[in-house]
Amino acid sequence: MTTKTSAAVCIDGWSGDLDTCPVRQVLDRIGDRWSLLLLLTLKDAPHRFNALGRAIPDISRRMLAGTLKTLEADGLIWRSVEATTPPSVTYGLTARGLSLIMALGPLVEWAFAQAPAILADRRRAGGAVSGVAIAP
Amino acid sequence: MTTKTSAAVCIDGWSGDLDTCPVRQVLDRIGDRWSLLLLLTLKDAPHRFNALGRAIPDISRRMLAGTLKTLEADGLIWRSVEATTPPSVTYGLTARGLSLIMALGPLVEWAFAQAPAILADRRRAGGAVSGVAIAP
DNA sequence: GTTTCTGGTCTCAGTTAGAGACTGCAAGCG
DNA sequence: CGCTTGCAGTCTCTAACTGAGACCAGAAAC
């Protein structure tokens, strides 16, 4: 289980090294706590740095800066700096970011439809409410 | 940014508390490093505990046990114990788990189509290769 | 003069994931 | 008989990651 053999199972029969599976690489990003939320906030309109912080109250500046940086590196958002004083930085969705949101549509619908039943099951199953919930 | 006002933005205009947004709750689960991989491994056939460990070589027993537990709590997989010695435990997909995989289809297609371009951008953008990648 | 705003970075603590040892029992092998 | 293997997990220790909040410098409002 610790030997990292290649040719492991992956999504849609990807048979290469696990770390190179494209779906894994993409989901690792958008599956984190903030990326998707940021993308969906930017979907309606471009936002400035602190405006994003206000729109998503429980993100820290540190994670906001870091997540924006990786989203930009992935070409999902753009970043533009206007040389005013103080310089104002604006972020917005790229075409690729928008296409990701579109691809997410069915999943979002599924989540909305299934959420009540899942939450009921989760409650019935016991206290396992957040994360992987290993016993303390 | 630290005041947790409710009525924050969420997916598809969810306006309640961020923690109750159904899409967030679902994505927090399937977005983690192992849930989706496990689900897709179980899609083809039911597996026993150690068989899953062999199919996904780089998961630790600890995360395997924990992730299976939460997937079961969410009603995405079933778990059946046969009282042999030693008892053998089998896991498989439920109908709900299968419906999630179906909903994931467009996202998987998108990821496959976009992965080369994203990886190229990521390389061009610099060393930000894994995770949020805050500078050391 | 003090506060507030701009976009971030830095440091410190707390939480979390991963590695690997450990449990107890049964079967296979020499 | 003794050794190893496999079963399904759990336990502990350490490494990594996350969140909270201080800090920067300049400008505008009060």
Automatic annotation (TrEMBL), chains A, B:
GO terms for molecular function: DNA binding. Keywords: DNA-binding, Transcription, Transcription regulation. Residues 21-119 form the HTH hxlR-type domain. Pfam families: HxlR. Coiled coil: none annotated. InterPro entries: HTH_HxlR, WH-like_DNA-bd_sf, WH_DNA-bd_sf. This is HxlR family transcriptional regulator. It comes from Roseicyclus mahoneyensis.
